[in-house]
Structure formats: C-alpha cells, structure tokens
Amino acid sequence: MRRTFLQGAAMTVAAAALPKAGVAQGTAPAPAGAAAPPPAAARAPITLADFGSFHVGGRDFVIAGQPTREVLFSPGGQLARVDPNGTYLIGGMYAGYMIPSPQRGRFPLLMWHGGGLTGVTWETTPDGREGWQHFFLRRGWPVYVSDATERGRSGWTMIPEATGGQPIFLTQDNPYERFRIGDGPGSLARGTTLPGNQFPADKDSYRSFMRQNVPRFTTTDELTLEAYGALLDRVGPSVVMVHSQGGFFGWRAAQERPDKVRALVLVEPAAVGDIAKAAALKDIPMLVLYGDYIDGDARWPAIRANGMRFAEAVRAAGGSVDVVNLPERGIRGNSHMVMMDRNSDTVAGLIQEWLAGKGMWA
After folding, report:
1. Is 324 inside any structural domain?
2. Structural domain containing residue 109
3. CA atoms of 297 and 182, how far apart (whole Å)
4. Three-state secondary structure string covering the chain
C-alpha cells in the first residue's frame, strides 16, 4: 500500500463539476416503478487523499518451437514479423485504489469480484446508482477494487499451455436465469422475474449488466490465488470483501496469510476454502451473506449447504462466523448480484454495522 499521500490540498470529487440537472451524465433513465438514481449534483462531494492503480503478481511462462508469422498491426501499415517463442509474463492482476480524507476504516477494504465479472461489480449498478465502492468510500474506508487474473485490466493470455483450458463465454440468458433474476427458462425473452426481485432487470439495465460480463477460465485459480496473495502482501493487513467465485479466493488467501486478513465478508460465496486448514481462520471474524430465492433454486441450496459446513468447521476450530440469510432479516428480493440490487445500500449498511461492531471502523 502506498504510505505517502499527496500533501497540501486534498483532491475533491466536487459535485458542482458534474451535471446540475436531470439524470446524471451517462445514466439511463430509471424504468417505470424503479427509484431513479439521484442527480450527480445532489450527492455530497468525496474528498480523496490519494488515488491510483497498480498491477501485482504474475509468473514467467516460456513458449518454444512455434513458427513465426507476419502481422499487419494497423491498416495501411507495414507487415511486422512476430515470433511467438520466448518468455511471457502471465497471471498479473490490476488493482485501483481510492484513499478518502478523513479515514475511518481502520484497515483498507479490498473488494474481490465473482466469476465472469470484473471490479466493475463494486463500482456501479446497471441502472446508474453508486456502487459499494462509493458506499464504503463515503464512510471513510480506503477502498481497493481489483480485476482478477485473466479479466478486465489484468491482461489476457490465450496460450492453452499457460491457462490449462479454454475460456467460457455466456449468453445473455445465462446470468438472467442462473443469478436468480428471472423466473425460469425463457424468462429473459418474456421479461419476467422472480416475484419481488430487486435486480434492475429492465431491458436497458440488464444490457448494461451484460456489457460488464467477460470471458472466464475455470483453470486459472492457482494463478489468481497467487495474485491475490501478492495484493495482500503489497497492501498489508486488510478487510477483504468477496463475491461468488471470489469466496474461494477469500477463504484460501486468508488461510495462507491469516496475518494479512483482519476480517472477511463473503457475499454469496460459491466455493469454500480448505477444510483441513479451517483452524487457520480462527482469529479472523467472518460475515457470510445469502440473498433470496435460494430454496427454490436448482443449485444454490447445495452451494449454501457447502458454505454452512465450512463455517461449522471454522467454528469448531475456535473461529467466529456470522451467517445472515437476508430474507430472515426482512431484506427480501435479492438476486445473486446483491451489490447491484435496488436495495443494495440496505445490505451495505448491514455490512458496515457488522464491521463497526468488530472494531474495524472508528
């Protein structure tokens, strides 16, 4: 983590510099019946002590014995000879950070996204509201948002020998049905959702969400875990917040570096850590959140049950795991994309209260 911040006047994201009337610039109008995002000018300014980005992790990978070829990089240019043989750097990871002024979070807050997604998960919502990055930044948390290995701004390699497999691409129907938004097969075409669903599922918002989706590998977990470890080593002791596939990396990274994880927040984790190393988590407070519609889903009852078994193993080893099923708290209608649902600030408030209760916020 950068320890030297800008001196003198802090940088302020001033609301006065943004559009003063109507819907915030670049934000589509809210669908009928939905709460419109507040105009940019109505939001309080955010004051930053520092912001920036960096890349961490990665390993060398050597390719040999491949033929050279000529490539035209730009129309009207000249052919260039490309030799694919040599040493590649693969598995690096991007992280962007914002440090507020004043700070109230006692540790940096690292946000790790789920499968087929990038750090945009935390930055905004499909209908133009502020994301959890803003929510926690406004409450004084230094926030680090990363793009996992092979996604977003973290670089990309199509070398099969390096990735160990082929990337997976998703149709528009897939997340709509699998993320507990639509009410079954064909629901995207019908434009129907689960009753009371809070995800902004109007056509414009959902297409905005699909624009965020990226190819993913199921074979680069080791590379990704290495990169998250490198991120923790660079930033230092942190609160780690994860979503979906990120649950695997959050639990595993905490097991490998328990001195670097002060608390772990898991939003619908889709996988668990190493149950044989459950005791490594005994000094890390953990909060696990699950949304709505799980009992009627084909996959999520088993996924949640796996998470509960892992939580029990951590408790048996002397650890602390708080599990919240949001409907039981009266917070209803949440899809798998909890941080994008229309009641996302309500859930973020619950997390903020838990972190404060654990002494992570002053």
Report:
1. yes
2. 93-357
3. 11
4. CCCCCCCCCCEEECHHHCCCCCCCCCCCCCCCCCCCCCCHHHCCCEEEEEEEEEEEEEEEEEECCCCCEEECCCCCCCCEEECCCEEEEEEEEEEEEEEECCCCECCCEEEECCCCCCCHHHHECCCCCECHHHHHHHCCCCEEEEECCCCHHHCCCCCHHHHCCCCECCCCHHHHHHCCCECCCCHHHHCCECCCCCCCCCHHHHHHHHHHCCCECCCCHHHHHHHHHHHHHHHCCEEEEEECCHHHHHHHHHHHCCCCEEEEEEECCCCCCCHHHHHHHCCCCEEEEECCCCCCCCCHHHHHHHHHHHHHHHHHCCCCEEEEEHHHHCCCCCCCCHHHCCCHHHHHHHHHHHHHHCCCEC
Residue 211: both structure tokens together: 């624009």
The answer to whether residue 107 sits within a structural domain is yes
Q: What total of structural domains would you count in the chain?
A: 1
Split the chain (362 residues) into runs of 10 and give each run's mean pLDDT.
38 35 34 48 86 97 94 94 94 97 98 98 97 98 97 88 90 98 97 98 98 94 97 98 98 98 98 97 98 97 98 98 98 98 98 98 96
The answer to whether residue 174 sits within a structural domain is yes
The CATH code of the domain that includes 144 is 3.40.50.1820
Report the pLDDT value the prediction gives residue 156, as an integer from 0 to 100: 85
Query: What phi and psi values does residue 344 have, to the nearest 5 degrees?
Result: -60, -35
Instruction: Please tell me whether the overall predicted TM-score, pTM, comes out greater than 0.85 for this model.
Output: yes
- Strand 286-290 versus strand 261-267 pairing type: parallel
Please tell me the number of Cα atoms within 13 Å of 49 on its side-chain side: 17
Task: Show the tokens assigned to 101.
Answer: 């002024």
Does residue 155 lie within any of the structural domains?
yes
Alpha-carbon gap, residue 230 to 93, rounded angstroms = 9
Tokens of 83: 């030799």
